[in-house]
Request: fold
Amino acid sequence: GTLRVDVVTIFPEYLEPLNVSLVGKARARGQLNVHVHDLREWTYDRHNTVDDTPYGGGPGMVMKTEPWGDALDSVLADGYETDAHGPALIVPTPSGRPFTQELAVELSERPWLVFTPARYEGIDRRVIDEYATRMPVYEVSIGDYVLAGGEAAVLVITEAVARLLPGVLGNAESHRDDSFAPGAMANLLEGPVYTKPPAWRDREIPEVLLSGHHGRIARWRRDEALKRTTANRPDLIERCDPSAFDKKDREM
Ligand SMILES: CC(C)N1CCN(Cc2ccc(Cn3ccc4ccc(-c5n[nH]c(N)c5C#N)cc43)cc2)CC1
Reply:
């Protein structure tokens, strides 16, 4: 079915990229429905206030409960017809669980994702506590670096999820060989890729790739993947299953 995505944000223009490219195509095909809402629609004071000073003191500002509560009630009131599961709340935060390909797969199997990218120091905890009584809440971080808000995370998560939707990725096979996808190449980074012309500025293509010998090509690619993973992500090496490689070798 169609994945519905709702985003509540004080920077709706930040989510414009969701209307183009891969996600744009999935939307055009009706595989994805994206609705972006401006949080300030649910403020009723002259200055459209969404933040206030933190209880307990400390630097920065905290996003207030009322606008978020009214916005989420309004979005969820849409009562989008869902099958087994209903909506899940996705809260980007520097203190969240790491967003991984595994989580992207889990989210791609849901019918409705409601994103609440915050700014300032984040959202008053009572908002998350309130909605956690009604739906699954995923507090996720897209990486170990500090952003000024959650909107970029929404773009990242939505793209990672959308490309997993059936038919959204041109060649359905492509994401099978993704890094982090299960299987013998699981947890390995991709090696180098090449295409025409066969020579460019005196640089040629590795012979094996022109040999047409699929067994040798597969082994070369795996060795290159191991080299690259050892260099860039040694932490992934101990997670991969060397016996799976021997099995593949034996098959060749
Ligand atoms: C001591 C005191 C000066 N420190 C001040 C910084 N505090 C942490 C802190 C830092 C930045 C922000 C800004 N921000 C607001 C909403 C929001 C959502 C996501 C992210 C985010 N950052 N990095 C990721 N991978 C993210 C994801 N996903 C950042 C966000 C909010 C909060 C820690 C305390």
The first helix runs from residue 21 to 28. The chain has a mean pLDDT of 90. Strands lie at 3-9, 32-38, 51-52, 62-63, 87-98, 112-115, 137-141, 199-200, 203-204. Residues 42 and 74 are 9 Å apart (CA to CA).
